[in-house]
Amino acid sequence: PISAFSSPPSAAMKFKTPSFYYFLLLLLILVVVLPGKFSFAVSPTTITRINRQTKGLKALGDDSILQAESPEILLHHAPSVLSAHGTSALSMTPIVGSSLIMLTIVGLLYLWEQSVEYLRGSVPKTLLPMVESILGEIGGLGFIGLVLQSVLSNNSIKKVLEEISIHFFGEGDIALENFEFLHSAFFQVGIGYFIAAGGMAALGIKKLEEIKEVQSLQFDQNTGICTASPDLIVQYIPECVNQGQLPGPAIVRDDLRSPTVEKAARTVLMRYQVMKWFPHLPETFRVESYLQASFAYNLKKIVEVSPMTWVYLIPALAISNGIDLSHEVINAASPNAAESSGYFFSTFSSIGPSTFTVLVSAIWGSWNYWKLTQIKHMLLPRVRRSDDKDLTEILPPMYEFKSEREAFDSSPAWIRPIEKIWAKPATNDFEELFGAAGGVGLRLYQQSIKYQTWLSITHVVFFGTQIIPRDVSALVTGAAVGDPAHLTAELTTYSAFVALALLQLCTVSTKAFWNLVLVAGAAEENRETLLELSESSLPFTKEVVYTPKNATALEVSVA
Question: What is the pTM of this model?
Fold first, then answer.
């Protein structure tokens, strides 16, 4: 039958399961049916009873709900008043409201579960470890919130916390509120980091597709052979690389400016290098599959956040939070948040470290990109055309020549002392390319990209949620500002900090990661593992579609 050849349900259809319809039906009953079916009319006797009980509450000193001007308005508070004195509820509205809240929570959990399943089913198999790692880190942040909520609800711990709060902050409730705020800040930074990792993943997938397109220009449907010949590749590379030309500042400039198809064509040249390492590979070998394995491996390492990673947040959060607490403000969500506005700029203990870390992050990210771009160009094979342009040949990468390898220096004098802190002697030609870092170069710059991205995300989240919104709100509403003389300068400065951090994340950080993927693919210790993960290392088998003997034209077409 034709259903045997039909496509599986799409990811969008998975959301419309029977449980999904049961959920909608229950929601409809609670929202539409129950309020009208079980609502009760309020009689004058009931109003008289509310008045009597209200007077009793006033006599007990509880006049917090006695702001209404009439008994009818007091009915908004009636359920809590009556339940406290053993009287039946007036209507089903509180029950419906509580049910709606719980259904919202269940609905969000359902949406989360379906999103996770969709993500697991839509990403390439090699990226599944990265997805599982991100889900594990998010679960860890949620677990911390659960532990804090459980521990801080204990009265004994609350008393101890109040004493600590009085000692450090002068008031008993500030420490508890600060706990909640700082956990929220940690969670926001964590989510922001995983979003940035998602951006790196999106860029990597886009690069792999571009490489696939170039390599598929010469593809045999019958044999699976897809060798993009030098004559084809050279059409996308405007300038040939001379034998003795070492990478330099011009290489970085060209890497930023060159068209995407040119970058893809240069990367396809790596196929010849991989097949040189593994002569047994079939002609059907696809280099994008090999690079996808390197991409997935390095991305998983990037999203693995150790507990020590969070330590770097402490100075930034402590200094900025100190500005708020010194002016009796908890955070940007406090009603009096504007009382700290202006002081984030006029106080050197805030603006000084903030400026320093932003500049360090900008230099750090640019250096990661510069270093890995230089090394990448030493590792990629090159093409050379003859003078009459009739002959094109593939040249070995420059790092295979001892003279060029010795002339290449990826560690200028100013960075050499920093790299030597972690350095180990190089054990092969590949490790020599990392200069002073030597044998730990690849892992060092893998961690370097992670922590630089983390620092940029901290700037975006903290400045973008704690300083800029309150300054904008103060300007719009005309609220009383703590230091109005520096309000505009503060808003301008921290907005520039956030813009610079976002620029880093969208350009050099993501490009540095992709260069890391290419460099890691050439590491001797990684080659065997990446080849095993590469599906295209298997012999090509042409897919044969089975159709029934008496199949109709439509069935054959669907098949």
Answer: 0.71
